[in-house]
Amino acid sequence: MKKIITIIFAITIFQIPTIFAQTFVENRYFHENNGTLKNTGVYNDKLLFTHEGNMYIVNGVNEPTILTSVSSNMEDNFIRNGGNDGANEFELDNENNVNIINSLDLTTSYRDVAKDNEENYYFVDTDGKLFAYDEDGSHTELYDCGEGYLFTGLTTNNNHIIITHYNSIGSGTEIVKIPKIGGDNIIYFQEGLTIREPVVVKFSDNTEEILLLKQIDGAINVCKVENDGNLTELFEITELIGDTRMSANIDENDNYHVIVTGQNGSLEIIYELETGIENLQNTQISIFPNPTNGIINVETQEQIEKITVLDITGKLILETTNTEIDLSKQKTGTYFLKIETGNGIFTKKIVIE
Fold first, then answer.
1. Peptide bond just before 198 cis, omega within 30 deg
2. What CATH fold (topology level) applies to the domain 23-274?
3. CA nearest 258: which of 103, 7, 30, 82?
4. Per-residue pLDDT of the chain (353 residues; tens, 9 = 90+)
5. Of 279, 187, 197, which is closest to residue 243 (Cα–Cα)?
6. In CATH terms, is domain 2-22+276-352 a member of 3.30.110.40?
């Protein structure tokens, strides 16, 4: 009886509550190397990172493609120009060649630089002050992070400039939305959290979505900032160590593309929205036990077309139509179970102990 009770509590049941439910499939690609921290960037829908003098592009592949040699670090689509007081803006042509299209002389050391769709430039200097960069080379101060700030993150869209900064005096992080035309600053404070790298990944006339990289007690998470300032965790990252950087975008199909870099490699996460899903109101899928010592059972009333198992890097482990899956020969760790039925695709994280 005791064994039966344990199995019952280990069952995971998916209940899709609405006919027009949306599900996501998450794929991960981990690019491992033993080197220093890499910086990330995004050009249009292309995610980039630099490492040891080279720039790479990633696009849902296990091996990133080298583009060109670079002399310094990168912040989104800017490369530091020699020292810390200049930034070269670059673009990629149709053949992914890197071309410098503009050079900014900021006349002061900076931490972050950003550009909006209206060709306006903004940067944060090493004193934690946010400036607008004027065409004549002058600077207009917009915001001061104040005493106690340790680092900042900067992004912008047509309506707002978004800056985050960790404050050692307040022991927390401020998320500040600064309107470009009229209105008051909106400030969210996250007590005790270390947050960096804000990214506006979607923008419309009425809404904007902001992603943040959160690090606390050794855990790394990509989070979405809700309208009330609270954070919703989207991805947990266990592959990376040390200090991290992030860039992201969302495509026209509402698929998230995220790249996070650490001191041991780069992790690309593609969070794809599955569309065309109908008649899911009564669908149930049970997966048990989870965690498991290697044997996974799948129970459903649906006709299973295919079950795919991926490891944490997105590598294919097996494909099957069997509802009893033997993973006993796999290493302990986190895996993803992708179940394809006539009514849609479902993905669940499983753990082998």
1. no
2. Methylamine Dehydrogenase; Chain H (2.130.10)
3. 30
4. 333 333 333 334 344 333 233 456 677 888 877 666 677 877 766 788 877 778 888 777 667 778 877 666 676 677 776 556 678 888 888 777 888 888 888 777 787 888 887 788 888 888 888 888 887 778 889 988 887 777 678 888 778 888 888 777 767 788 888 888 878 888 888 777 777 677 766 665 556 778 888 877 677 888 888 878 888 888 888 888 877 888 887 766 667 888 888 888 888 888 765 443 333 334 577 888 888 898 999 888 888 888 988 776 567 888 999 999 999 999 887 787 888 887 667 777 788 88
5. 197
6. no
